Design the sequence.
């Protein structure tokens, strides 16, 4: 297989001027990442600062309501409130050891921006965060956190003013500042080596979850593993160590937006076609002429017209089933998990929880392990009018 | 020899720098665009670079991006570009080049794209988001139609990578003068000269300097190190202000 590809997907579709920093990053990934120094420091930070291993939690009340065994992998309990911190600390430490002093990031829901800012603060680096102007408004609590921790926030006014535009602008900034700056890409997407690098830092989710589930279930594996998919970093982390387990059904859940026919959605695997954006060949929401369509989800972290290339390949080879959940179904899951278990999930993760709720008839008696990728405090503003 | 190289060499033989103006297709509007091309051609352009608008142009600065997005809103697409060029085939003295991003070209179909370039008299292509590593499948589709994939290199391109780009390259080599996006700049980086010297040693086709070029005075210090100049943002701003392409080209002649 061609380097940097997952089947037909992946690659490095990026201006030549960004190839030197990508080559530098790939070399660092191959030489620094395996060293004892990196692994020792990274493992220490994950334990000391993130709080790993994160718990898995059995949900007795919802399990009873739904007629299945519902388990959650609790990435919401990580420091800063989401799985994002696994990746930013990894990339931050790598960048520091490469001699960079600025972490540049894009963010949609704000969780990757917060996690990048935390990593920068911990590692004595500067954080520069690009965020769509629309997201700056709808994720105000996270913007406040980032500012408090010292990040420079750049509100992006171009395009749809959401995640894809933040990525465009961050790539432009990286073009100019590549000598001092590491682009801390937030999801398992983008040009090689980012999809592999981010998966490497996120696969700890399934490494822990697999062992924890077996420890609690007499050595048995779950019947179904579920995660939400925007760019796909929590999902690739949750899926990776279950992929070889043929008995485990793996489900990725994309956002169907309002669910109305013809509405913008965030489901390129379900409704997209092959194309090139942000450095990768992948599935995209696009017109027949190759213009990128706006996406929509009530969950800002899923609001992206593309998806990581490894997911495109996992779909193409049939190992993972990808499906959709709409805004209303996600809000229902948000409310149900909050009321029945006292856990407020991120709107992104609510899409994964909603899969278990909406498919409860087919899942009767089965064990379902859901990646709860983040906590929902940040979303209360979005839901104020609804709840 | 590719027509783009022929035209740049022609300018060079007259002691001039080849001129490569850039305009997004359909700018400032559908009808005026063709008139601007005619003016640029009559005013001595060696190669006219026509932008293929894309919704997410990461290598473009604000002026080019805004102009391109307006063209997209006006419904400009590859079919419109090719239809217009086919109607006018043979009317331009300058060689024609299309510049854009891979996805619209990929969706159009690479073989069809190559064939339509030939039918429309287009002899070159620049894909801003496609480095050497990903370029083979595009080259294989367009080169049989006589269309050159123009190498895009810059200040951080090593001499080793330049050599890889130069292998089989035709038309000209586009040297990006800054680490950044397109757009006018007050001054250009000091490192340009040293890197242009490297490029001159490596490429046996003309070298064009682009990004940040707004006036011929900027080029004096690069005499002998480059053969052509590309200008886009400055031209777009000039036209947006109600001026003509002919006026813009005057100081360059």
Sequence:
């Amino acid at each position: 297989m061609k380097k940097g590809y997952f089947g037909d997907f992946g690659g490095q579709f990026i201006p030549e001027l960004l190839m030197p920093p990508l080559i530098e990053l790939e070399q660092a990934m191959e030489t620094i990442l395996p060293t004892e120094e990196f692994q020792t420091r990274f493992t220490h930070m994950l334990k000391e600062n993130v709080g790993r291993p994160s718990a898995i939690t059995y949900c007795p009340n919802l399990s009873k309501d739904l007629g299945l065994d519902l388990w959650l992998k609790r990435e919401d309990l990580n420091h800063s409130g989401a799985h994002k911190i696994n990746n930013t600390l990894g990339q931050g430490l790598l960048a520091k050891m490469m001699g960079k002093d600025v972490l540049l990031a894009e963010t949609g829901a704000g969780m990757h921006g917060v996690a990048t800012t935390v990593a920068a603060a911990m590692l004595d680096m500067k954080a520069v965060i690009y965020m769509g102007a629309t997201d700056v408004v709808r994720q105000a609590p996270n913007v406040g956190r980032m500012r408090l921790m010292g990040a420079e926030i750049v509100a992006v006014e171009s395009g749809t003013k959401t995640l894809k535009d933040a990525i465009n602008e961050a790539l432009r900034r990286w073009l100019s500042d590549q000598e001092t700056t590491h682009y801390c890409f937030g999801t398992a997407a983008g040009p090689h080596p980012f999809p592999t690098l981010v998966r490497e830092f996120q696969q700890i989710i399934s490494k822990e979850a697999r062992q924890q589930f077996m420890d609690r279930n007499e050595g048995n594996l779950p019947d179904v593993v579920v995660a939400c998919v925007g760019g796909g970093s929590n999902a690739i982390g949750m899926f990776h160590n279950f992929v070889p387990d043929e008995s485990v059904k793996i489900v990725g859940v994309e956002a169907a937006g309002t669910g109305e026919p013809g509405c913008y959605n965030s489901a390129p695997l379900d409704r997209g076609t092959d194309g090139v954006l942000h450095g990768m060949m992948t599935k995209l929401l696009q017109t027949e002429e190759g213009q990128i369509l706006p996406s929509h989800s009530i969950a800002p972290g899923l609001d992206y017209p593309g998806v990581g290339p490894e997911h495109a390949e996992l779909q193409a080879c049939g190992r993972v089933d990808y499906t959709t959940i709409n805004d209303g179904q996600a809000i229902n899951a948000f409310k149900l998990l909050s009321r029945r278990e006292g856990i407020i999930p991120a709107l992104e993760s609510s899409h994964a929880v909603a899969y278990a709720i909406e498919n409860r008839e087919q899942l009767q008696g089965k064990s379902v392990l859901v990646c709860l990728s983040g906590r929902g405090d940040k979303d209360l503003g979005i839901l104020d009018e609804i709840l | 020899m590719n027509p783009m190289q022929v035209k740049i060499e022609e300018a060079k033989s007259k002691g001039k720098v080849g001129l490569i103006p850039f305009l997004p297709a359909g700018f400032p509007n559908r009808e005026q665009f063709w008139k601007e091309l005619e003016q640029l051609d009559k005013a001595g352009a060696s190669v006219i670079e026509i932008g293929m608008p894309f919704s997410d142009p990461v290598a473009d600065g604000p002026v080019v991006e805004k102009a391109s997005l307006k063209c997209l809103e006006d419904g400009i697409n590859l079919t419109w570009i090719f239809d217009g060029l086919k109607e006018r085939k043979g009317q331009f003295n300058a060689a024609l080049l299309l510049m854009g991003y891979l996805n619209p070209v990929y969706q159009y179909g690479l073989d069809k794209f190559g064939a339509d370039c030939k039918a429309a008299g287009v002899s070159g292509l620049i894909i801003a988001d496609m480095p050497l590593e990903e370029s083979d499948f595009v080259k294989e589709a367009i080169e049989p139609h006589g269309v050159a994939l123009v190498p895009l290199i810059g200040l951080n391109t090593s001499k080793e990578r330049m050599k890889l780009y130069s292998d089989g390259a035709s038309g000209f080599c586009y040297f990006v003068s800054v680490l950044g996006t397109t757009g006018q700049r007050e001054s250009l980086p000091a490192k340009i000269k040293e890197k242009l010297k490297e490029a001159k040693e490596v490429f046996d086709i003309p070298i064009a300097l682009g990004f940040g070029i707004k006036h011929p005075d900027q080029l004096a210090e690069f005499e002998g190190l480059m053969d052509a100049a590309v200008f886009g943002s400055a031209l777009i701003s000039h036209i947006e202000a109600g001026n003509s392409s002919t006026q813009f080209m005057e100081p360059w002649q």
Notes: Chain B touches chain A at residues 54-59, 65, 72, 77-78, 101-108, 128-134, 152-158, 161, 176, 178-181 (CB under 8 Å).
